[in-house]
Design a protein that fits this description.
InterPro entries: BSH_CzcB-like, RND_pump_MFP
Distance between the termini: 50 Å
Order of helices and strands: HEEEEEEEHHEEEEEHEEEEEEEEEEEH
Mean pLDDT: 83
Family: Belongs to the membrane fusion protein (MFP) (TC 8.A.1) family.
CATH class of the domain at 31-47 and 274-354: Mainly Beta
Helix content: 10-25%
Number of helices: 5
GO molecular function: efflux transmembrane transporter activity
CATH topology of the domain at 31-47 and 274-354: conserved putative lor/sdh protein from methanococcus maripaludis s2 fold
Protein name: RND family efflux transporter MFP subunit
Strand content: 35-45%
Number of strands: 23
Shape: elongated
Keywords: Signal
Structural class: alpha+beta
Length: 355
């Protein structure tokens, strides 16, 4: 009986040892240590992705108009949305105080002219000294400059349109007292149909663009798509948005009804092409700005974690610009369970369907 109990105890110990040991592969690894993954071959190709950006319509000659002098607004002849022609009177100050200032300088100039002529005569008669003559001449010259300044201010006490366009904004009403430089009207040159679309792009997108690259613009103000092209690229980043500004010019010959500040979306077709690898989103790990990590393999048995440089992002994947050179396969599933050097088992398409 004792021998039978010993044999049963030995059998149980062996069974437990086998169960804890697991199943080993030919290379001595447990099957539980091998992670099933799905691979795709890495093929470098040309990046033909477009650049999508958004912005608002504007014109080059949009401006906020104001009076040079302060005073009481006597007349505003336009309202928001009005069409104006070049040279048209838009607003005017009450001229009473300004005209009085001009008349005062006129009188001061007349007196200075008389004093100078009198000093000349006295100097000729040896009654006045040369210093007195020079002082009279200086006083006359000062009076002349003061009179010119007063006339200049008089001329700029009214606002006239500098170009054909539209009134975008009216800031004040008649009877208000305004100071020098106070905004009165905002106008643009939309009457010349010289519309621009200003959009923001990333640094990588900015580098791909050239002057003259074609663009297709969509706006709720136009049923048809609008043709345009890259007119200008900013040479510095916009601190308010953190992007580089690109100005698109609307091609002439299009019947458009646009408005300043209206939102629009643009698809830009860069002439510069880049080479790289397009990978699916689920293969990318720890993406940060223009860098990230992926798992690759050459022998389909060992995973390797590599750092990559990212390019354009599209709806069907991410463009990798560098980091995948000299690697054969990219791991696109099971990456969450991997670490650098993990053993893998490449699944076929049929295996993937079964799982």
């Amino acid at each position: 009986m004792k021998n039978i109990l010993n044999q049963l105890s030995l059998f149980a110990s062996l069974s437990l040892l086998i169960a804890c040991g697991g199943t080993e592969t030919n290379d001595g690894l447990n099957k539980e240590d091998i992670i099933p993954v799905k691979l795709i071959p890495l093929q470098q190709g040309e990046n033909t992705n477009t650049i999508q950006a958004s912005g608002v319509f504007t014109t080059e000659d949009e401006a906020v108009l104001s009076f040079k002098n302060g005073g009481i607004v006597q007349q505003i002849t336009v309202n928001e949305g009005d069409h104006v022609n070049k040279g048209q009177l838009l607003a005017k100050l009450n001229m009473t105080e300004i005209n009085t200032g001009v008349q005062q300088t006129d009188l001061a100039l007349e007196k200075a002219e008389r004093d100078y002529r009198r000093a000349q005569q006295l100097f000729t008669d040896s009654v006045a000294t040369k210093e007195q003559l020079e002082n009279a001449k200086t006083a006359r010259d000062i009076a002349i400059q003061q009179n010119r300044a007063a006339q200049f201010n008089q001329n700029f006490s009214e606002i006239r349109a500098s170009t054909n366009g539209y009134i975008l904004k009216r800031f004040v009403n008649e009877g208000q007292t305004v100071g020098p430089g106070t905004p009165i009207l905002q106008v643009n040159g939309a009457g010349n149909t010289d519309w621009k679309l200003k959009v923001g792009v990333s640094d990588q997108q900015w580098a791909l663009l050239n002057i003259g690259d074609e663009a297709l613009i969509e706006s709720n103000l136009s049923i048809e798509k609008i043709n345009g092209q890259v007119l200008r690229k900013s040479e510095g980043i916009d601190p308010s948005s953190g992007t580089f500004s690109v100005t698109l010019k609307i091609n002439p010959g299009q019947n458009l009804n646009l408005a300043s500040g209206a939102f629009a979306r643009a698809i830009i077709y860069p002439s510069n092409k880049t080479t790289g690898w397009k990978i699916p989103y689920n293969a990318l790990l720890d993406g940060n700005a223009n860098q990230g990590f992926v798992f690759v393999t050459d022998d389909k048995k060992t995973a390797k974690k590599v750092k990559v440089t990212l390019g354009a992002i599209s709806k069907d994947g991410v463009m990798v610009l560098s980091g995948l050179e000299n690697y054969g396969y990219l791991i696109i599933s099971g990456s969450a369970y991997l670490s650098d050097g993990s053993k893998i088992n490449a699944l076929s398409n049929q295996d993937s369907l079964k799982n």
